[in-house]
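Q: Two folds, back to back.
A: First:
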Amino acid sequence: NSLLTFFALYIIYISIPPILDWAIIKADWGTGSSRKEACTGEGACWTFVRYWIDQFMYGFYPETERWRVNWTFIILVGLMIPMFMDRFRHKGLLGAFILFGYPVIAYFLLVGGSFGLEVVETSKWGGLSLTIIISVVGIVGAFPLGILLALGRSSDMPAVSAFCTAFIVLWRGVPLITVLFMSSVMFPLFLPEGVNFDKLVRAMAGVTLFQAAYLAEVIRGGLQAIPKGQTEGAQALGLGYWKIMSFIVLPQALKHVIPGIVGSFIALFKDTTLVLIIGLFDFLGIVQNIAAKPEWSAAIEGYVFCAIVYWFFCYAMSSYSQSIERKLDTGHKR
């Protein structure tokens, strides 16, 4: 232990000071439209991030309409705050509104075409806002679908079990990049002439179905951890299948697999970078594209900025999952 401690201190000594020297002490924080104009070259050129921050956040969304993106996320945060308050008593109604009502509000704000709002094509969406949109849609859509698939695969009905098993095995056996490619290039070939779906909609559908298959297996593991005696006891009391699952089995099963579920959500958030393969510029895609400009050549600073943002979101999800585990802990240890 002593040797490992000294070795760790040595690694910190040789790595942390140079990093701080490059990232903070000798870094450039000023203004300018090129690296040569704004940066000295001795440290990190954070002017690059400062100059392009709007495009990192909004992509190619029209500058005069970016208030719509801001209000979309402000409304979402405002609706979510009461869900974290223990004293709020109407979480069920608010959750239903967030699930069914908020997507309608977000659609009219982001897409436009109604209430005097200018239409903004999804090809102009991008940056961190697009990453969050794809992630939220994928998480909200994949979670209930994953529960249904897990219940279906565990069902005693052969047809339902076979269908859910085939669905899970098929989607888990294909890389996400292939799913996105098929949804963008191959899927339109099977549609009737004149029928087409937006590229972003197809990408979100592919991400949702792909993630649902992985979540189904995580949730099925939680279902198998529940003793059969609880189900048999509930049946003896005359409870039906859905009541048993809703009030007895699923609450315990989901509590057991919170780390696995959140791990899948974090993986989904990071996998959104793959939408670049179908021409959608998410957060990393935008940063990578701009960093390659000859007047900047700021690939290192761009990737560091991306890493910090991704780490922040992933750490926030991980911390929240740990708080949920502590809140739901009943003290029953096996």
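A: Second:
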Amino acid sequence: MMRDLVLASNNAGKLNELQAMLAPLGLQLIAQGQLGIPEAAEPFHTFVENALAKARHASAHSGLPALADDAGLCVDVFGGEPGVQTAYYATRFGYPKGDDHNVTALLEQMAHIDQRRAALVSTLVAVRHPNDPEPLIAMGRAAGEITRERRGSNGFGFDPVMYLPEHGQTFAEMPTELKNQRSHRGLAARQMMQLIQERWLA
């Protein structure tokens, strides 16, 4: 019975969020770094292609089923950018790579923009083996607006500036449980749980 999955990421925030959501299925996520697996190349322009490349790479190196997440921020007024380049967004403006710098750069770039619609997007891909012809693909999208300043201290990434009008809060102001229900990764993870249960565990 399949119990271990390699997570094609070394992001501790992602690992904790996804492990909490997949635990009810009795699945254990192992970060690829723990197995000495190097990071995969991400040469593509869409979340789904990059997530698939990462999942196949982790599975090939580990011999285990693998789960990969490619996520990012898509800002309407920037034509969906930074998109797949979200992790490196700050470096385009002379800052070092990092969540906090990304937020700083975004707030600076949007300082004089009134149209602030944006979405956090998460695409999860799972493969049973590197050449799996039928990868499981789940997508989650949380749409909202970019605030003009940081609000809240929970979460990571763009959580302090991603405001959800229906809740009147940013993700960083929400309790973890509510955030996991509403977040792009939470929505994708619930879809993925259902797919794993139906296709792999049934």
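Q: And?
A: The mean pLDDT is 94.
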